[in-house]
C-alpha cells in the first residue's frame, strides 16, 4: 500500500451562494425561480452522494444564506458596508432597489446549512457574508473586516467555527490575508496557477474565452498541484484550485471532452501523489440537475477506483491543511 504521505488528494470546495452570487447578472423571473428550486433539490442529493461514498468537501457559504427571512437579514447588516464605486454589484443596494421578501428561497437557506453541517465529512467555510468583492474599486480593508466579522458571528450562532475562506468571483486579495488570519481563517482557496486566472487582471474577452475553453482543452497544463509546492507554513494556508467543474450542457461532445479532462487530471494526481482541487457552485446544477448529478456520480466513481488502485484520499480543505502539516512534520 502506498504511504499515506505519498497519496494523491482529491479536494472539493463548493461556493454556496444562491442568488447572492448572480443577482446583478440574472433576471429574477420564472426561469430563475425554477433554477434555484432545482438547486435546492440538488444540494441534498449531492450531500447524499458524498456521504454514501466517503467523499469530503468544503462548503464556502455566503453568510446571508444563514438568515431565515428579510427581517433577520436587516438585523444582521454589518457595521460597515462595502463602498463599491460600481453600485450594481452591491447586494445591499440591490435589495434596496428590488427587495427579497417575495423570493426567500433564492436568498435564504438555513435549512440547507443545517443539512450540510450534519453530513459527515463536510466542512463549512465562508464565501464572506455578502459575497464581498475584494478587488472592486471603492471598498476597503476595514469594510472587508466588518463583512468577515459578521460572517463569523452568524456562523458561531449555529455552533460553526469558520476556518476556510473562498473569495467571491475568485477575487483573491493578498493584502487581506492579515484580516483573514485575525478572524480565525486558516485556509484560503487561491486561483489556478495560470495568467488568465489572475484576479488582478481585468476580465477581458480573451480571458473569459480561455477560462471557458480550459474546461475542455488542455490550455493550462498544470492543473494538478504537487503537494511539495503548497507552502504549509503560510498563515492562512493558500490552497490552489485546479479545475472548475462546468455544468452539463446540450452538447454531448463537449461533455465528453470535459469529463475526460477531469478523469485524466484526477488520475495524474493519484499516480503522482499530487493534489487535484475541484470546485463549482451548487447553483451550476440548476438548469440540468439530473444530468449534472450523473456526471458528479461518475467523478465520485472515478475517485473510488483511484482510491482502490492508488490509495487516493478525499479531503476537505481543513483536512488537507492538517495532512500537509503531517507530511512536513514527518519529513
Q: How many β strands by DSSP?
A: 10
Using the 3D structure, state the CATH architecture: Alpha-Beta Barrel
General form? globular
Overall tally of domains: 1
Which structural category do the helix and sheet elements fall into?
alpha/beta
The top-level CATH class is Alpha Beta
Q: Unreliable runs, pLDDT <50, ≥5 residues?
A: none
Oligomer state of the chains in this structure? single chain
Question: What characterizes the major β-sheet?
Answer: 7 strands, mixed
Cα radius of gyration in angstroms: 19 Å
Describe this structure in words.
There is one protein chain. The protein is globular, with a radius of gyration of 19 Å. It has helices at residues 30-52, 70-75, 91-98, 104-107, 110-118, 141-156, 177-182, 205-213, 252-272, 289-310, 317-330; strands spanning 9-16, 57-61, 122-126, 164-166, 187-190, 225-226, 237-240, 243-244, 274-280, 313-314. Helix 7 (177-182) links the parallel strand 4 (164-166) and strand 5 (187-190). Helix 1 (30-52) packs parallel to helix 10 and helix 9 (252-272) runs parallel beside helix 10 (289-310). The strands form two sheets. Strands 1, 2, 3, 6, 8, 9 and 10 form a seven-stranded mixed beta sheet that branches. The chain has a three-stranded parallel beta sheet with strand order 4-5-7, covered by helices on one side. The chain contains eleven helices and ten strands. The model has no long low-confidence stretch (mean pLDDT 91). The protein is an alpha/beta fold. The chain has a single domain, classed as Alpha-Beta Barrel (TIM Barrel). The chain is 42% helix and 13% strand.
Amino acid at each position: 500500500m502506498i504511504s499515506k504521505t505519498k497519496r494523491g488528494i482529491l479536494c472539493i470546495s463548493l461556493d454556496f451562494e444562491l442568488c447572492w452570487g448572480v443577482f446583478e447578472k440574472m433576471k429574477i423571473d420564472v426561469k430563475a425561480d425554477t433554477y434555484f428550486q432545482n438547486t435546492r433539490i440538488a444540494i441534498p442529493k449531492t450531500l447524499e452522494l458524498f456521504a454514501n461514498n466517503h467523499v469530503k468537501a468544503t462548503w464556502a457559504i455566503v453568510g446571508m444564506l444563514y438568515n431565515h427571512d428579510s427581517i433577520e437579514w436587516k438585523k444582521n447588516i454589518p457595521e460597515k458596508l462595502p463602498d463599491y464605486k460600481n453600485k450594481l454589484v452591491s447586494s445591499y443596494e440591490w435589495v434596496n432597489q428590488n427587495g427579497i421578501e417575495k423570493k426567500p428561497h433564492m436568498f435564504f437557506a438555513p435549512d440547507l446549512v443545517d443539512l450540510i453541517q450534519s453530513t459527515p465529512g463536510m466542512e463549512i467555510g465562508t464565501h464572506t457574508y455578502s459575497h464581498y468583492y475584494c478587488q472592486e474599486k471603492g471598498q476597503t480593508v476595514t469594510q472587508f473586516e466588518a463583512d468577515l466579522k459578521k460572517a463569523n458571528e452568524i456562523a458561531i450562532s449555529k455552533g460553526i467555527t469558520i476556518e476556510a475562506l473562498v473569495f467571491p468571483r475568485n477575487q483573491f486579495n493578498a493584502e487581506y490575508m492579515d484580516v483573514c488570519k485575525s478572524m480565525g481563517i486558516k485556509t484560503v482557496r487561491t486561483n489556478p496557477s495560470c495568467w488568465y486566472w489572475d484576479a488582478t487582471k481585468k476580465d477581458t474577452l480573451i480571458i473569459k474565452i480561455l477560462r471557458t475553453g480550459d474546461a475542455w482543452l488542455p490550455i493550462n497544463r498544470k492543473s494538478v498541484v504537487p503537494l511539495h509546492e503548497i507552502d504549509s507554513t503560510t498563515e492562512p494556508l493558500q490552497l490552489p484550485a485546479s479545475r472548475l467543474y462546468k455544468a452539463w450542457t446540450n452538447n454531448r461532445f463537449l461533455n465528453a471532452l470535459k469529463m475526460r479532462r477531469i478523469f485524466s487530471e484526477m488520475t495524474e494526481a493519484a499516480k503522482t501523489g499530487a493534489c487535484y482541487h475541484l470546485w463549482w457552485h451548487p447553483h451550476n446544477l440548476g438548469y440540468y440537475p439530473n444530468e449534472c448529478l450523473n456526471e458528479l456520480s461518475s467523478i465520485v466513481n472515478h475517485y473510488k477506483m483511484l482510491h482502490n488502485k492508488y490509495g487516493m484520499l478525499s479531503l476537505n480543505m481543513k483536512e488537507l491543511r492538517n495532512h500537509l502539516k503531517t507530511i512536513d512534520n514527518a519529513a
